[in-house]
Amino acid sequence: MAAAFLFHFGDLRPLFAAASSGLRGQGLFVFTLFAGEDGTDHAVAGTVRLAQSGCFQHSAAYVERLAAETGFSVLELQEVIHEHDQGGKPVPGLLAVLRL
Fold first, then answer.
1. What pLDDT digit, counting tens, does each position of 8-54 carry?
2. Number of domains in the chain
3. Domain range for 47
4. Is 23 domain-assigned?
């Protein structure tokens, strides 16, 4: 489980591969990300505060593709409110639940 952690990495392929090799059969990989635009795998987060803190956004399509490539099935992948910025505006996120 990784809440508010994986968005510090751009390319998630090595992390997916490590989770896939480290989990037992039927193991769960559960994490949150900042939601990005489909058509872009990952990009520096769109808001100044998040970009300055080294955060990335990832698209749902990217998560689905990496899951398939590393032996995971997607049990759930939904948009959520990850957090609220300093002005109180919601910051969109993704909640992913993958099964090996």
1. 888 999 999 999 999 998 999 999 998 887 777 777 766 656 655 77
2. 1
3. 6-99
4. yes
Is position 1 within any domain? no
Q: For the domain that residue 49 is a member of, what is the CATH number?
A: 3.40.50.150
Q: Please list, in sequence order, all residues whose beta carbon lies within 8 angstroms of the beta carbon of residue 55, skipping any fewer than 6 positions away.
A: 7, 8, 34, 44, 45
The phi and psi torsions of 78 (rounded to 5 degrees) equal -135, 150
Q: Which of 26, 96, 23, 27 is nearest to 66 (CA)?
A: 96
pTM, two decimals, is: 0.84
Supply 66's token pair: 């990496």
In which residue are the tokens 């510090």 written?
Answer: 8
Contact, 91 vs 47, CB < 8 A?
Answer: yes
Which residue blocks in 1-100 are alpha helix, DSSP H?
13-22, 48-52, 60-69
27 vs 49: CA distance, rounded Å: 34
CA 15 vs. chain centroid, Å, equals 11
